[in-house]
Write a structure and sequence with these properties.
Blueprint: E1 4-9, E2 12-17, H1 28-42, E3 49-54, E4 59-61, H2 66-70, H3 74-92, E5 98-102, E6 105-107, H4 109-116, E7 119-123, E8 127-129, H5 143-151, H6 153-162, E9 165-167, H7 168-174, E10 179-181, H8 186-198, H9 202-215, H10 220-235, H11 238-248
Parallel strand pairs: 2-3, 3-5, 4-6, 5-7, 6-8, 7-10
Antiparallel strand pairs: 1-2, 8-9
Family: Belongs to the enoyl-CoA hydratase/isomerase family.
Keywords: Lipid metabolism, Lyase
InterPro entries: ClpP/crotonase-like_dom_sf (IPR029045), Enoyl-CoA_hyd/isom_CS (IPR018376), Enoyl-CoA_hydra/iso (IPR001753), Enoyl-CoA_hydra_C (IPR014748)
């Protein structure tokens, strides 16, 4: 529906970019749907991990739908902006860990969606890039800031200023991808990884994600304070009591 499908399997939610006939290019309608789906998932306490995947074999997402934009006035493009920001922000701000399953082209907004995830599983066909400057734009889905934080200033500048494409081997070397998997297995491997995450304490995992996200770029002392807050959140929860009891009794925890 409107290019985004939501699936659930136990404690894992899968958000599917589902517009393969357009290489999952982000249209205005698709962006609205994605923001709504992310809000639904974020509010679901039963969801412990999220996979962001894509339909079709050729692309994860090739970014904004430039055919749609070509028919828009300057005013319409500016009016589209908050809709797109809500879509990218929806993925970025999910409280659960997000695993991106990338195959084929992940360009422009597609690369930014991957960067918005916590972990990127890429198969051997994956191609990453932020080519916005080649069409007179600046990455606008978080690309400059997310690449800066993930890759460092020099590597981010290389990627953004040249607009060049990276194959999966270089993406892995630079840190743009976290795991390389055989062609056609990105979704399967990402779901498996999300399943492992979902077995852990949802209170602890969410608190750890907040510490990791909020700690990027802050001074060490401030970061350790963020970690302290995360630790206290988990330590004072029923999950901590159940986790230690389960360990002592040599059984799997039943997270409350």
């Amino acid at each position: 529906m409107n290019g985004v499908t939501l699936r659930r399997d136990g404690h894992v939610a899968e958000i599917v970019l589902d517009r393969p006939e357009a290489l999952n290019a982000l249209s205005t309608a698709m962006a609205r749907r994605l923001a709504a789906v992310c809000a639904e998932v974020a509010a679901d306490a039963a969801v412990r991990a999220v996979v962001l995947s894509a339909a079709g074999e050729k692309a994860f997402c090739v970014g904004a739908d430039l055919k749609e934009r070509n028919a828009m006035t300057d005013a319409e493009i500016l009016a589209q902006r908050p809709v797109f920001r809500a879509a990218f922000g929806g993925v970025l701000n999910l409280p659960q860990p997000v695993v991106a399953a990338v195959h084929g082209y992940a360009l422009g907004g597609g690369c930014e969606f991957a960067l918005s995830a916590d972990l990127i599983v890429a198969d051997e066909t994956a191609v990453f890039g932020l080519p916005e400057v080649s069409v007179g734009l600046v990455p606008g889905g978080g690309g400059t800031q997310l690449a800066l934080r993930r890759l460092g200033p020099g590597k981010a500048a290389d990627l953004v200023f040249t607009g060049r494409r990276l194959d999966v081997a270089e993406a892995l070397e630079l840190g743009l991808a976290d795991r390389k998997v055989p062609a056609g297995t990105d979704r399967e491997e990402a779901l498996a990884l999300a399943g492992v995450i979902a077995q852990n304490s949802p209170v602890a995992v969410r608190a750890a994600k907040r510490a990791l996200r909020q700690g990027a770029g802050v001074a060490l002392d401030a970061g350790l304070d963020l970690e302290e807050n995360a630790w206290r959140t988990a330590a004072s929860s029923a999950d901590r009591r159940e986790g230690i009891a389960a360990f002592a009794e040599k059984r799997r925890p039943n997270w409350p």
